[in-house]
Specification:
Length: about 100
């Protein structure tokens, strides 16, 4: 029980003994840090954006090296663009 040692949870946030005791018995009453949650969501979106960008570069590289046909290239690029559009919509929907 880390909270008994220094009064902080694994994220370094203050954690009271009553909250720790209730949590140990399955009752989750800890308040959530909305800024922290928003930061984690933004980080997740940025990681997914980079992954999609890498997919696009991979399709481009494979096409340039004649490893895939033009049809495969176009399908892959279109699929990646749709993923990117969905991701941008999700990012717009994040509350500020």
């Amino acid at each position: 029980m880390q909270v008994m040692i220094d009064g902080r949870d694994m994220l370094g946030l203050d954690y009271s003994v009553p909250h720790a005791l209730l949590s140990a018995h399955g009752v989750k009453v800890q308040p959530h840090d909305l800024d922290l949650a928003r930061s984690f969501r933004a980080l997740d979106i940025e990681q997914r954006r980079r992954a999609i960008s890498n997919e696009i570069r991979t399709y481009q590289r494979d096409y340039d090296r004649n490893l895939i046909s033009e049809r495969q290239y176009n399908r892959g690029i279109e699929r990646s663009r749709r993923k990117m559009e969905q991701l941008q919509e999700q990012a717009r929907d994040l509350p500020l």
